[in-house]
Specification:
The protein has about 140 residues and is of the alpha+beta class. The protein has one domain (about 5-20, about 30-130). The chain is about 40% helix and about 15% strand. It is built from five helices and four strands; from the N terminus they run βααααββαβ. Strands 3-2-1-4 form a four-stranded mixed sheet. Strand 2 and strand 3 (about 105-110) form a beta hairpin. It holds the Pfam family DUF6157.
Length: about 140
């Protein structure tokens, strides 16, 4: 499922006041880092499913050749299981990034501190939802 004409606001319990680049750590990149790199490099070019699949490919270490040769089967296998949506992403939960999905379902990062965030969070033409809270109430 891809979002269309939707704005995902930061979680109500987020502790940051500006959009932050997820910190680096040793070893494998975190999901937050991978999602950030993908969306920041290609604003309004990827759907939620594109981002999720690309993160899966990078984290499993599949080669470009494997993905090219088996993309349809890998895609079908990956999405055959229930997936968390971008409301559960660490970007809007913990790092201060709103997610704006345009009419084509393509996503861009919007820092919580920006004028664009303030405009989108109040835009009546968009569906609005918030990221999932980091902690249970």
């Amino acid at each position: 499922m891809n979002y269309v004409n939707t704005f995902i606001a930061v979680a109500a319990d987020t502790k940051v006041e500006t959009g932050m680049v997820p910190p680096s750590r040793e070893g494998k990149k975190s999901v937050a880092q991978l999602e950030y790199e993908l969306i920041a490099a290609k604003p309004y070019q990827l759907t939620q499913e594109d981002v999720q699949f690309a993160v899966y490919v990078q984290r499993t270490g599949l080669s470009n050749q494997e993905v090219t040769a088996n993309r349809s089967a890998l895609w079908a296998e990956f999405f055959s299981k229930s997936m968390a949506c971008m409301r559960a992403s660490p970007l809007p939960k913990s790092y201060g990034w709103g997610l704006h999905f345009d009419a084509d379902g393509k996503v861009a990062l919007i820092g919580v501190e920006t004028e664009k965030y303030a405009r989108l969070v109040n835009d009546p033409t968009l569906e609005h939802t918030a990221a999932m809270r980091s902690k249970r109430s």
